[in-house]
Design goal:
The strands form two sheets. The protein has a seven-stranded antiparallel sheet with strand order 5-6-7-8-9-10-11. Strands 1-2-3-4 form a four-stranded antiparallel sheet, covered by helices on one side. The chain is flat, with a radius of gyration of 26 Å. With 259 residues, the chain is of the alpha+beta class. The chain has two domains: 116 residues, no CATH class; 110 residues, no CATH class. Helix content is 29%, strand content 42%. The longest helix has 25 residues. A hairpin with a 6-residue loop joins β6 and β7.
């Protein structure tokens, strides 16, 4: 009797163990937003210059997902932006992600620029820019780069003029002083490579106007601004005008203008 009961308990225990094992095997892996949120939360308190490993893992998850999702379709820029927003949907303050996407026709197909700002404080922010080519119902990743750290990210497409490539500005503002600081880069997509043709970093109180064939940047000189403010005077603003050329940007004029 005791022997039979012992055997029955062993069989029952083995059955429970097998059921638990099957249940564990059946558990699905964390979905993409959960994986990204888990990684981003580890960035709390991490200085920007020590964040490469974690932000690189986040970038790989996000861009691998986009490549798989876009492999057999050519989505609109709105669809790509929504897909990125969904990937980062679980982030909560102080963590955030701001996607930015553009599309432009190109030689019978379309080029999609998909980027995002990933931040974990007002100052710790990284920017990723990825370029995709869509053609005949499929998309492929062309190249990736990182825009200026610490800033947010925006795009401005340039109309084709005297160049046979796609050109656009990435630009954004940096917090941390009494005035915002502007950074901007003129990129050219040449073949399968993104090339920086011109850039400016941390223009104090900078503003950029992009025209058809020229770009104007107005800014303050920080030391001059501090000195004049200490004497309760308004400092001059500075204005630089550039012509868009096949090589990139060429300075046309520089002058002081009233504050």
């Amino acid at each position: 009797m005791i022997l039979a009961l012992t055997v029955a308990l062993c069989v029952l225990g083995a059955g429970v163990a097998q059921a638990k094992k099957r249940k564990q095997k059946a558990s699905p892996p964390p979905d993409l937003p959960t994986q990204i949120n888990s990684l981003v939360r580890k960035l709390y308190g991490v200085p920007l210059d020590e964040s490469d490993q974690l932000t690189g893992e986040v970038q790989k998850l996000a861009l691998d997902h986009l490549q798989q999702w876009m492999a057999n379709r050519v989505p609109s820029d709105v669809e790509v932006r929504r897909e990125l927003e969904a990937a980062f949907a679980q982030l909560h303050y102080p963590f955030f992600c701001q996607p930015m996407v553009f599309e432009t026709p190109w030689k019978g197909g379309v080029v999609i620029g998909a980027g995002y700002t990933l931040g974990w404080s007002d100052y710790d922010r990284v920017n990723v820019v990825a370029m995709f080519e869509g053609r005949e119902g499929k998309c492929r990743l062309i190249d990736t780069t990182h825009f200026a750290p610490h800033t947010d990210l925006h795009f401005e497409i340039l109309p084709p003029l005297k160049w046979d490539d796609i050109r656009f500005f990435a630009y954004g503002n940096r917090l941390g002083k009494s005035q915002l600081r502007l950074s901007a880069t003129l990129y050219a997509l040449q073949g399968d490579k993104l090339k920086s043709l011109w850039e400016v970093h941390d223009a104090y109180d900078g503003e950029m106007d992009i025209g058809k064939d020229k770009v104007t940047i107005r800014y303050l000189k920080e030391e001059e601004y501090i000195r004049e403010q200490a004497h309760r005077r308004k400092p001059p603003r500075h204005e630089a005008t550039y012509l868009l050329t096949p090589e990139g940007m060429q300075i046309q004029s520089e002058r002081e203008i009233p504050f």
